[in-house]
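Quick check before the chapter quiz. The format below is the same one you will see on the exam, so make sure you can read both the input and the output lines.
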Amino acid sequence: MSPRADVQVHDDPGAEAAVVLARHAAAGHHIAVTGGSTPRAAYRRVADMRLNWSATTLWWSDERCVPPDDERSNYALVKAALLDALEEGPPVAHRMKGELGPAAGADDYEEQLREAFGDEVPTLDLVLLGLGGDGHVASLFPGQPAVAEDRRRAVGVEEAGLEPYVPRVSLTLPVLNAAAEVVFLVTGAAKAEAVARAFGEAPDPDVPASLVSPASGPLTVLLDPPAAERLEGAA
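Here is the expected output.
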């Protein structure tokens, strides 16, 4: 396994992710969230903890270029699973405006990040990520120029590498790698090969997730047993 990551295998990794989210929410941190069915369960768990999120700021790692109430929207997923369920103060939510299109949506998010963090690369306290079956992370797909982008904070992705085939807006690798803590949450046997490539082999641009390596904080990979089945040494 990669020495850069703390790989953990749990029967319920979503519960572990919820604990991490709760810790950062209680501290009033800047948290970047992601879409997907596995994170949805973690959001529901942390919502049930009845925490006050009013000092917390939410960001998104990526978004589909659809309206915010579209069923494919990552914002809509987080809103339904977490934001709408909070009984205490809600967080400040900086959503990616995917409905503007990839270029304008990326420009808008770039400006939001600059307003919050200034001209330096944003230092998010926690970035929660998933992993695509092709090794993509956020909306940074293999073989696409967005993977190599090192000047922007947010980038437009004209063509998704996997379904749904809609344009995207994504944080860039410099932002992901500037985070104080990065957590991958991955479940299911369908992701086992991608897990092995991302965290069991040397970093490879053809596996964008393998390029996530925070410079000054921990990288934790939370897996269930099926997702870990091809990763040597996982326990």
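If your answer matched, good. Residues 142 and 235 are 28 Å apart (CA to CA).
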